[in-house]
Design a protein that fits this description.
Arc Repressor Mutant, subunit A; five-stranded antiparallel sheet; 13 strands; AraC family transcriptional regulator; transcription regulation; Tscrpt_reg_AraC-type_HTH; transcription
Amino acid sequence: MDAMELTEFLMARQFIKKREEIEALIPAETVLIDDEEVFLYNYTINAIENTVIEDSIVITQQPYHSEIPVHVHEFIELTYVFRGTCNVVINKNVIPLTEGTLVMIDKYTPHTVEETGEDDIVLSITLKKDYLSPNFLSRLSSQSIISIFLVDLLMESRESNRYLLFNHGKNKKIIEVVNNIVWEYFHKRMYSDEIINSYLVILFSELIREDEISQRHTHVPNSNNYTLIDFLQYIEDHYQDCSLTSMAKHFNFHPNYLSNLLKKGTGKSFKDLLQLQKISKAGMMLINSNIPIPEIADEVGYSSVTFFYKKFKQIFNMTPSDYRKGHGDRFAVPPFIRK
């Protein structure tokens, strides 16, 4: 897919739609959000062909010189500025977006896109299934406490803010992934759905990696420029024989001070993080190998198989045997459970 070719394709699709034409396509159902009446748009419309699209993932193009009423969905929407600029209004806040910017808008969040110009290409990617559900997000995880922690931060921020802005710095990799999704969607061939789903996993992985939220929440004051990611990475690398004392010595901290940093930053103790990493690694081995369970327990650092079973069940709410039998999809991951 060539960027110029995609630009020419989308420019050829530019169109105008009057507000009354848009409203005529969608049932005029309204709901009260924060004491304000807004439209409920649970139908994704192909405004060019005037048809309803029932797919789980739908990409539509914003008509230019058009007024879109303030509305909400029962699904997540990603607004992406492919070319030019636009203003997105979310909860009455006007948010200017530049080329390459992506905003994720949560369910039941009042929003609209203000009138755009002929040269502005704004795309809407609606995810009717909750692609930020635990099942989907587990695909982003490499079965490590770092990935689990970052996914949890994303979910926590999404819950509090109702929308998230991404890619202010115009990360070319993110732009390339989104453009590939768009191209694959509009030029569907065999396995396009599977390819789009895979690109979505890559997209959200890149967003989490680049997200200011994770950067902001992983900084640790007065810690010689170390971040929570540095601490979690150490646990990941040394989980088989890691101790709070050895870790504190590595970072030149007092063990009690390091313990407090971890608890404050992640909501979990060093012991809890260590157990989570061991059990996560064991879970990955159970799914991806036929290694006997006692050998897996020993491999991840448990000398007692009975104790391993106990800890595994505490985190996964099932035995290692049941986990291996019931999670052949290879996408299971334990919750981080920040408290």
